[in-house]
Amino acid sequence: MALTFPLSHAQFFDGITVTECTFRLPSNLSVSRTRGGGIRTAQLGQRLWSGRLVLAPETHAQAARIEARLERLSEPGASFLAYPLPLSGPISDPTGATLTGYDPTLHALQPGGREIRLAGLPPGFELTEGDMIGWTYGSNPTRYALHRLVSDATASGDGITPLFEVVPPVRPGVSIGAAVSLVKPSIKAVLVPGQGARAIARVVDGLEVEFVQTLG
Q1: DSSP at 70
Q2: Are 190 and 212 in contact (CB under 8 A)?
Q3: Which run of H or of E encompasses 189?
Q4: pLDDT in tens, 129-171
Q5: 34, 119, 122, 197: which sits with the fewest CB atoms below 10 Å from its CB?
Q6: Comparing 195 with 193, which gets the higher pLDDT?
């Protein structure tokens, strides 16, 4: 059966063993200097998450399966869901065990998109600077938002957080009440061309995967 995109976690990202990972949000700025020595910066466009993975050595048979999937993902229009590694859940609850039975949602969004509140959390649940959260919004295409906390927040007895800041700012299009993912929050990603591997006697070593977020 032909694959449909983006590939789910189970179809790709959950099935690879990673030994090294870079997952970051590069700046997209222009920088200029005034005659008086001041430095001015301006945003050129959307900041998009990018990542680089080095995969664990695999048998030739298993590596062939991974390479086949990568070759398909290198075709135009192909994409997959990727989540942050090595921390793919809240620092206070890495596996999401405490969140079982709860359905976090976006409770409030400040103008400018820098500060938000969540609801539907366990009472006293701790969100920590550095945690990642995400949601989907829009249709045709569905877009995947991923944001990192830059301040701590603790849910009240009603499961609602105070305002906290995230980066990048929330883009237009999400609705209050949208479901929020705290475990394996995802981006829709496309491969960056050029990864390869080194085959030795019994294993394939050094297979690399580079990717960048797409909002398309």
Answers
A1: H
A2: yes
A3: strand 187-191
A4: 999 999 999 999 999 999 999 999 999 999 999 999 999 999 9
A5: 34
A6: 193
Neighbours of 53 (CB within 10 A): 21
Rounded to two decimals, the pTM is 0.91
Q: Which two tokens stand for residue 8?
A: 């789910």
Contacts of 202 (CB under 8 A, 6+ apart): 59, 60
DSSP annotation of 13 reads: G
Report the alpha-carbon distance of residue 211 to residue 50 in Å, rounded. Answer: 6
Residue 182 and residue 178: Cα distance in Å, rounded? Answer: 13
Burial 152-175 (b: 16+ CB within 10 A, else e): bbebeeebbbeebbbebebeeebe
Which is nearest to 70 in space by CA: 136, 199, 62? 62
Q: Which of 3-17, 109-123, 195-209 shows the lowest mean pLDDT across its residues?
A: 195-209
Distance CA 3, CA 17 (A): 22
Least trusted range by pLDDT, from 12-21, 95-104, 116-125: 12-21
Q: What tokens appear for 43 in the block?
A: 């945003």
Element (H, E) at 61: helix 60-73
